[in-house]
């Protein structure tokens, strides 16, 4: 018994140390950050020829660099598998253009937002009047068939707007658009970044497919982690604050939404700007805004109309 007791105490001590260790410590000790991505959702995650890139991919790599560890990506086949795989310990964090919702917040802890989007649509031009420019313009079209990605906030919202029998679900956004091109649905609904990118990368389809990008909702992407680790959550929020304030996030948005080299889109020389130039432009814009505000106040104090 005397020999067994120290062994039991050692095992218990090891178990307690694992329980008390925070997620950051576990990740650093393991030397690896496992990140769950949203496959097939450019420009956040682009997988081609066994190469993975995208805005979410770059953010994951930055986090891993700060932690001094390698990054390992997983790409669940279905979006509804994202949270179960996180809770099962198959990933450490979800960085997958995931919309923060109160329902999901019951299962996971969300960080502060890092990206704002609206719901948008792609529609067969023959189905809508020329002046239609938003997703809501589809609501009054009788019998219109809507394609959506399954198990998303997009599907849930569509079911509130359209008859259930007119909604077709697909495993991912590209398959929904493929159904639109084949005439199986009349319109597809996505988050605005996807519609923006699809329209820019498919100019040959502009004669038939119309993007509807006027904002109709406000939704926010956040990272998701398991509940119970406020230290990890606070650190991730600090990371998001920093990449917003130092221009890193603006640079990534510029690379993936303006330059778009990843899609083979030709960009102007002016578009190829550095992080330092972005910071300078942002500073000048903020300074100009403050000057205009001051001028407005001075004009109002004088009683003059401001033009």
Q: Predict the CATH topology of the largest domain.
A: D-Maltodextrin-Binding Protein, domain 2
The total of helices stands at: 11
Strand order within the widest beta sheet: 10-9-11-8-12
CATH architecture of the largest domain: 3-Layer(aba) Sandwich
CATH class of the largest domain: Alpha Beta
The level of helicity is 40-55%
- Look at the structure and give the mean pLDDT: 88
- The counted number of beta strands is 14
- Poorly predicted runs are 11-20
Describe this structure in words.
The protein has 307 residues and is α/β, with parallel strands linked by helices. A five-stranded mixed sheet has the order 10-9-11-8-12, with helices on both faces. It has a three-stranded parallel sheet with strand order 4-1-5. Strands 2-3 form a two-stranded antiparallel ribbon. The chain folds into three domains: 147 residues, D-Maltodextrin-Binding Protein, domain 2 (3-Layer(aba) Sandwich), CATH 3.40.190; 99 residues, D-Maltodextrin-Binding Protein, domain 2 (3-Layer(aba) Sandwich), CATH 3.40.190; 33 residues. Helices cover 43% and strands 17% of the residues. Strand 9, helix 6 and strand 10 form a beta-alpha-beta unit. It is built from eleven helices and 14 strands.
């Amino acid at each position: 018994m005397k020999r067994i007791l120290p062994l039991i105490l050692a095992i218990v001590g090891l178990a307690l140390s694992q329980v008390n260790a925070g997620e950051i410590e576990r990740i650093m000790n393991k030397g690896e950050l496992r990140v769950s991505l949203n496959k097939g959702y450019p420009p956040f995650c682009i997988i081609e020829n066994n190469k993975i890139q995208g805005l979410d991919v770059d953010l994951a790599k930055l986090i891993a660099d700060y932690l001094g560890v390698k990054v390992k990506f997983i790409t669940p086949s279905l979006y509804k598998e994202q949270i179960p795989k996180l809770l099962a310990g198959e990933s450490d964090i979800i960085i997958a253009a995931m919309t923060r919702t109160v329902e999901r917040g019951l299962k996971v802890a969300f960080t502060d937002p890092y990206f704002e989007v609206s719901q948008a649509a792609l529609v067969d031009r023959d189905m809508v009047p020329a002046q239609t420019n938003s997703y809501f313009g589809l609501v009054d079209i009788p019998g219109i068939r809507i394609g959506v990605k399954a198990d998303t906030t997009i599907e849930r919202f569509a079911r509130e707007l359209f008859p259930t029998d007119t909604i077709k679900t697909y495993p991912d956004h590209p398959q929904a658009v493929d159904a639109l091109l084949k005439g199986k649905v009349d319109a597809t609904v996505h988050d605005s970044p996807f519609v923006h990118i699809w329209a820019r990368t498919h100019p040959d389809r502009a004669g038939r497919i119309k993007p509807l990008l006027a904002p109709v909702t406000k939704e926010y992407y956040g990272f998701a982690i398991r509940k119970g680790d406020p230290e990890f959550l606070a650190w991730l929020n600090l990371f998001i604050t920093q990449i917003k304030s130092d221009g890193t996030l603006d640079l990534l948005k510029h690379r993936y939404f303006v330059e778009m080299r990843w899609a083979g889109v030709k960009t102007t020389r002016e578009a190829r700007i550095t992080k330092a130039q972005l910071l300078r432009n942002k500073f000048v814009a903020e300074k100009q805004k403050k000057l205009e505000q001051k001028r407005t106040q001075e004009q109002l104090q004088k009683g003059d109309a401001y033009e």
